[in-house]
Amino acid sequence: MSQNLAAESQHVDVHPQRSRLRCMWGLVRKETYQMLRDPSSVGIGIALPLLLLFLFTYAISLDVRNIKLGVVCEDNSPIVNRLLASFQNNKYFMVHVARDRREVQDDLVGGRLNGVLVIPADFASRIERRSLSPLQLLVRGSDVSTAALVQNYVRGVLRHWLIQEGLNAGQRNSGEIVRIESRVWFNQEIESRAALLPGSIAVIMTLIGTLLTALVVAREWERGTMEALLATPITRMDIVLSKFVPYFILGMLAMGLVAAVSTLGLGVPLRGSLWVLIMVSATFLCSALGLGLLISSVTRNQFVASQVALIVGYLPALILSGLVFEIDSMPRLIQYLTCVMPPRYFVSALRTLFLAGNVWQVILPNTVVLLGFAAFFLTVTIQKTKMNLE
Amino acid sequence: MASQVLISLSEVRKQFSADARPALECVTANIYGERITGLVGPDGAGKTTLIRLIAGLLDPTRGRIKVAGYDTARQVSTVHTIVSYMPQRFGLYEDLTVMENLHLYADLRGVVGKHRHETFERLLAFTGLGHFTGRLAGKLSGGMKQKLGLACALIHRPVVLLLDEPSAGVDPVSRRELWKMVNELVDEGTAVIWSTAYMDEAQRCDEVLLLNEGKLLYQGKPGDLTGQVEGQTFLIEATEDSRRQLLSKALEQPDIIDGVIQGRKVRLILKTPTTVFPALGTNVQARPTPPRFEDAFMVLLGGIPKTRISNITSHIFQKLREDSTGTRNIVVEAQDLTKCFGSFTAVDQVSFTVCRGEIFGLLGPNGAGKSTTFKMMCGLLRPTSGKAEVAGVDLTMAPAKARERLGYMAQRFSLYSDLSVHQNLEFFGGVYGLMGRRLQKTIHRMIEEFELAPFINSNAGDLPLGFKQRLAMACAIMHEPQVLFLDEPTSGVDPITRREFWIRINAMVNQGMTIMVTTHFLDEAEYCDRIAMVYQGRIIATGTPDDLKRSIPSENLPEPTLEDAFIEMIQRHERYESEGEGLRRDG
Predict the structure, then answer these.
(1) By the CB < 8 Å criterion, does B85 face chain A?
(2) What's this model's pTM, rounded to 2 decimal places?
(3) Cα B336 from chain centroid (whole Å)
């Protein structure tokens, strides 16, 4: 028995003969299996994009259709009926007819109607007399944007009706010479869908890139598997890249899905070229993945990681990216804040690509900024990834 | 046999934060190849920290560790190529299959081509996992997970194999198989470090490092340490007193430093070796018994401080409520209790009865269904079928009424860690309907009885573990229940606190309290009057510890342990099951 009190253990020869590539491949494969077997990644990768598309298309449309308008006809003459009919035949209105304003007052207050148009009893006779015939429109000021829309739409219908009736002919301003005709570029119908759908790619990629990946490293710490991995001869690069690759592919697939459904199924144009779209998306995805992995390595706890990912990833993508709320109409301070939010640049590039085309003055600077973010997050992640349990 | 030093630890110290007690203090030791070195100590002794330090996952605050000549702090990547490490919970990917787990570690260790194929074949034969290669690791039983973890660690031939509590909560049969497998490895020259909180496992190691509170108490052969207390250990038995009364009497003696209940007898350790046992009364018979490793450990720790025992009075309860059901002696009763989670039957037709003043134990590995049974008995889970009664109240009919009559101390104590000790007591007292002066009086009595006064305003989360346990117990008995349910009450507690805990339990039982307890410590089951062995959701045997031990054939095992009995019962159960299956098939 060797009582080796010199306390020096004997050397054993070590022959390192592992190939880096095989090590990495093993990890990527493992990560892919895990991803495919985890219902939440399939959910976030496929079901959620489809859900978001559905929401942006039908539910959160910023256009108002089916305005519920109460029309109070205190008079029953033919001319009033014709006016009523022009509202009833309009696809933007759902008309509820009443004889007395008290019948609809409660519905307006209770929000069951968006507006009430009152046609007073003397309306027809005043028209006959060609004197000023006032109509009253009541709207709910509590729903600011809807109220404004209702006003505009009702005015539009009225103008149309006046022309139809030829009532403007005898008016003083019948000889109107100049007519202002506004025209909207890129989104001719100013349909909010066309602007929202490309932007939703940013939200989905943030979810996959940041939320999903924020969970994966933290999960390994929580389940104790990280400890077992760290005791094997792997490097920092192995860990970060093996997490990166499968989720990158998933993110790009989800992007393809959203782009395909939007353009082929929902009629959003893609005026720029496909490869530019892929390039810009890949750049953004790198920054989102980098942020997710960074959160995960620092928190090491799935619950905290998901909370942080929601706050610094998802919410900015939704609120501060210009997707739903316009950046130009935000307070100055918040506008500065959006400058450090990668989704902002991505949303801007996406909208240009889909609705305008390969406008390099817009796309190039945005892409460069995104590249910067990606490089920054990934560098910090690799640095922050600890190779021990300290 | 000249085995070589493979790991050398010199003055290793590890401190996680400046104001905390160091996790390890000045540990100097050599660990040799071709041996199993047991890293023995209670939870919190520093075992895991030491293993992580050797694996290069932590850097020592001071001192130096060399593995096969390589410094773990500076040559960590080389250390990783020669060391294999199986962490607690085995470090498996539960959402990968057995084969996928093996492939991953083979890729990481660079085991390729024909060599990989041979290795897999060897390991699958070695672990007996050949039939389960396509099963998800998460769906394996505890014993199979442990074997897969070992297989993953053995993908390459490590110079040093580190196993962190590989047998914790695993059934005794798997535990025995694991020992056999590891012994084979040692014969091939590997140095194995096996950490454990089970003292009985220490005796099987070639060498042990005994740790307590971060300090190395002993290094050497386990037999040498037990040899030091030769002549100090006795088994005593009394004709008149119950074993519990006998134990509390014995512990009051100044020259007896430790005592535990062992079946019908009481095992005592004396301060000095002697051939004649000191008189404990006329009806006490004593005979010397060979010492065990735990006895030696208790002697090293100095036994239970006498002051801690003398303070445990035997009138915690003002009045243990007189049984409302009159003379009936059965306090807890389960009849064909079954609980299914989906297609999985966690508890399968379990029946037992517990009488007043009895300690009844459910003994079994993790996942056997102990906690599920408990939760049904406390009205926390609704049984799929069967009946549960506590103090004459049917839990399925009136769970709230039944809960008034029982106290429940959950695993990990479930205290409010950000409330103070006093606030916790106030809260739990209030929950059980104590109010006003009665509440204040009860709180006062609990504080006195459990000696919580010095911590009265500290948050429960900041208490030392032993005090947390006391507080949890105080909270559970404030309403003076008839039955106390204890779910793994001593896991993670050092042996002295564990002794103290059982002395308290004994005192309560002497006052007529009924106790139900779950444990996976086989030696702890000796405190119970009767135990039920739980295996795969069923009770495979019930009886007193002595009866169960006696039920196994004695020709080859003169002094069987409860573990031997458990293994015998599992084998009988499985034989019976397969016969039953055969019969069913024939019919």
Answers:
(1) yes
(2) 0.79
(3) 27
